[in-house]
Amino acid sequence: MPKKELTRREFVSGAGKATLGALAAASPLIIPRRVLGRGHRAPSDTVNVAIVGCGGMGSQNALVLAQTSRIGAVCDVDFAYSERCVANKLTDQLKQPRPEGQKLKEQFDKAKRYGDFREMLAREKNIDGIVVATPDHLHAVIAKAAMDMGKHVYVQKPLTATVHEARVLRETALAKPKLITQMGNQGHSSEGARLINEWIGAGLIGDVHEVHVWTNRPVVYWPQGIPRPTGMTPADVPGGFGNLWTYRHVQDVLAAAMGAPGAPPPGLDWTMYLGPVAEDVPYHPIYHPFNWRGSLDFGASALGDMGAHLIDHPFWALRLTYPTSIEATSTQWGTMNVPAADPSARPLRKPVSYPVSTCVHYQFAARGAQPPVKLFWFDGGIYPPRPDVLPDDVELKSEGGVIYIGEKGVLLHDTYGANPRLFPQGLMDAAAAVPKSIPRIEWTHELNWTKAIRGEAKASSPLEYAAQLTETMLLGLVALRTGPGKKILYDGERGQITNIAEANQFLTRDYRSGWAI
């Protein structure tokens, strides 16, 4: 049956006293946006979204989306925490009412609730897109399931927890080009990101051969380098030089002091929280709701957290793809005892928490006329060396930033691509003449995604791009687990480490039965 559109006059007058219901019964009714007038959105233009992981960043994404989209369903393993996060958005820092926060709460309260994303996907047929804002270990399994059901996805960074997962999601996105995908690295939609690209593309600092990236995470944000809590008195295993107080012993004492794992609080579904994690990690408040980032089971450390905001800009501006080699070094890991096969032997140790500070060295091959690039990552309060051309009074912000070293000068910017500057100072005069060749995004990263779903824009950071960026970030963790003093050589086309065969095990992980992607 042909669709029937109404003019604005017909809609207002009722088309000769005919009711809207009668018209709808006669034929499928499409109400175009122009009929509703300025400031109103036609129902057919409203994107219906579901939020998976409504606390923390998920509630912030939902706050933005609730203003123009409909939140039809929410899924979480701990709704008490999500409710607190939503309630906190009702007022600003001065405790003044926020209308946008009230709109979020109204939608959140009305939305259908689920504890299992699989049930939500099976039941909510009218959902257009899914926001995935869970801990890192769940991103890929949820996004893949949603995409397989034809849902658009907005996935918080890092896109995945492993290199294998990044490649699977990229292949899925390429196989389903009609799906609109976006990673939540919001700085990719910023003005600064575009200036960085345009200035480097114009050759203002010449060919870039070296990049330094740093962040103060995890220091002051979440703990790393810690053991898995046990609550058990540590075994008195003699240490070196007759001293019991080795680093191993200190880790065991700390594991005991953190207390024993216990029952999760009421309302927290710990089994669903574990999801694809193969091991039955006992609940402890060190993990939920935020400190999971430092755990190998649940997070991807500072590199996964902030690499998406920092490595993103040189990766984009320099047109990087896969690194050819990676090596990493760090402070001590957080470890736990693993019983040895021989009861009389000293217990083995396995890493359970990422180090406090990490350095990763990436090498990228030449790209056409662009030279090879070395990219250096520093986290946990470690800073890169200051280039000679950078004035002494220019602060390297503790939160993080990026320095591009070119043949003619340097480019410096803060986290998220903010506040890009060129040195020597005279280069800033030349920058003013560089044309703005990259389309600007005049709205938020989340709204860029929903506008792309409606056909009004292109996604800023789609999975085709974001997956390669994520893979590069996570290769730093693969090198870290391979061991200090070792350089891994990477074949990006095949997704394989070519020189240390056993390092390939770190490209993926073990999955709980029924959870592998």
Biggest sheet strand line-up: 17-16-15-9-14-13-10-18-19
Q: How much β-strand is present in the residues?
A: 15-25%
Instruction: Supply the number of helical segments.
Output: 17
- Output the radius of gyration: 25 Å
Quantity of strands, as a count: 19
Task: Output mean pLDDT.
Answer: 91
Spans with pLDDT under 50 lasting ≥5 residues?
A: 1-41
The percent range for helix content is 25-40%
* N- to C-terminal distance: 41 Å
Overall 3D form: globular
Multimeric organization: single chain
Please identify the structural class as seen in this structure: alpha/beta
Q: How does the major sheet shape up?
A: 9 strands, mixed
Structure, explained:
With 517 residues, the protein is an alpha/beta fold. It has 17 helices and 19 strands. Strand 13 and strand 14 form a beta hairpin. Helix 4 packs across helix 6 and helix 13 runs antiparallel to helix 17. The radius of gyration is 25 Å and the shape is globular. The chain starts with a strand and ends in a 20-residue tail after the last strand. Residues 1-41 have low confidence and may be disordered.
